[in-house]
Amino acid sequence: MAQDKKTPNKKPSLDQVVSGLKRSKEEEITKKRAKGFQLEYRNLAGFQPDPTVVGVIPQELAKSAKIFAFDKRGTKIMLAITHPQNKTTLAALKKLSAEEKYKFVPVIVSDSSMKYLLSIYETFAPQSYKQPEVKITSSTQRELEIKVRSLSEFQKHLAKTPISSLLNVIFAGAAGINASDIHIEPTAKNIKLRYRLDGVLQEVATIPLKSLEPIISRIKLLANLKLNIKKTAQDGRLSITVGKDKYDIRVSILPTQYGESVVMRLLPQESKFITLDKLGLDATSQKLINEAIHQPNGLILNTGPTGSGKTTTLYAILNTINSPTKKIITVEDPIEYRLKGITQTQVDPEAGYDFPNALRSIVRQDPDIILVGEIRDQETANIAINASLTGHLVLSTLHANSAIGAIPRLIDLAARPKLFANALQIVVAQRLLRTVCPKCGKKYKPTPEEKRQIRKILPDAKIPEFLIRATGCEACNNTGFKGRVGIFEVLKVTPEIRELIIGKQSVRTIAKQAIAQGMVTMAQNGIDKVLKGQTTLKELFRIIANK
């Protein structure tokens, strides 16, 4: 074999040496600057950017603000900047963040790197960046509807589906029966597929273990997650179109002893939000909420566990009070639904953009109404309370078991009782009950024990001759229930309640006063829905303990 001839190394010229030293020095200074701002540093001279993200920033804006979109990291877009304190750069970053079309992660680069990156616009035709999307045709959806009329038939249909089409059928099935979540869970023998229907998980099918790797890999590709990471959790997003309906999907992948487990939440992009009068509120509670949300300032809290419908209630409130004369800003984790005419921003703790930081920025945006996704800590609580005392109407959620239970929860968060007592307008607590399937619900005469249980909660209840029992049919997947309705209690902070809070009185004392002034409890609201034939006593006591 002939050997390659060695060419002598050409020595660099003096100018090249000096230029190289200057470049090295420039990168060192840039690296220190990035460290000072606690931002990532990259040397991008010669870097080939991702063609799908370059076009996210228009050329004129990129050149004037010295910013450049160069890569993707999961669902985020990496954004090169040179000087974080430059006014033009800051203005551009604020504008991009406010639009919330994409999530950006700033990375500091040298002036030389930026000059190189901006030159790419002259010779490079950028491609448009799109969130990963799965399209399921109307014909596929119709075929599924014709072949599958029950969960048992869906199991058989999945068994015949090739691995390449498995995920599409899982998506179409979930969308077709209005599931809120898809659970793909590996076990020792197979994969369990479960859908959450009306708040309750139901096993839909079992899938052979050999399908796990292809399913997980495809989900990761669609959600822009790393294929080779299997030992740590990953979160991402993707979109699906089923016929004419579009969904955003939040993806959570968790390593388990049998492989990676996936949960996907389906969020309809064009969700039609119900109005306040359709939530299931009694007349008194609805009047209290209407009065509070039309105040110019104050704090309105919505409490309940995850999945109790708090987002639906808050969005119904925002849609009620939204108008061209009001500036409404929300800070959420994550943004679940897009609201027209409302500015929405999403927290990103990894980038240092958490609830307290977001709230501080929002207050400077001259809002009339602020929605804070959740009050989780002392800092967020104090900023929200102060904002509500300085001319803003603030809405937020809190994890508490009841409306009264929100008060000690705020005290636990180190909020001063006098301060939040003056800020607090109302607290709305809620849960969701499944409603009886209209096709298979059966009338029956309530037993003496059931009558006793009803009167224990609602002493003056007029019990009808018949109540409704859940049975089960194909229309409701043999659950006996179809759809859900809210049950609520609304605590109005009257002068008497305010004095009890400031005096640090017990929850029992505050509850006694609230009921004396006419508060309807969740249990009473639930009994009212049982008597109207919307749900069952068993379902009510599944959600609220029968004490």
Automatic annotation (TrEMBL):
InterPro entries with a match to the protein in the record: P-loop_NTPase (IPR027417), T2SS/T4SS_dom (IPR001482), T2SS_E_N_sf (IPR037257), T2SS_GspE_N (IPR007831)
Keyword list, A-Z: ATP-binding, Nucleotide-binding
Region (Disordered): 1-29
Family, per entry: Belongs to the GSP E family.
CDD domains noted in UniProt: PulE-GspE-like
Name under which the protein is recorded: Type II secretion system protein GspE
A molecular function (GO) term: ATP binding
Origin organism lineage: Bacteria, Bacteria division Kazan-3B-28
Domain Bacterial type II secretion system protein E: 363-377
Top-level taxon in the UniProt lineage: Bacteria
GO cellular component term, pick one: plasma membrane
PROSITE patterns: T2SP_E
Naturally occurring in which organism (per UniProt): candidate division Kazan bacterium
PANTHER family according to UniProt: SLL1921 PROTEIN (PTHR30258:SF3), TYPE II SECRETION SYSTEM PROTEIN GSPE-RELATED (PTHR30258)
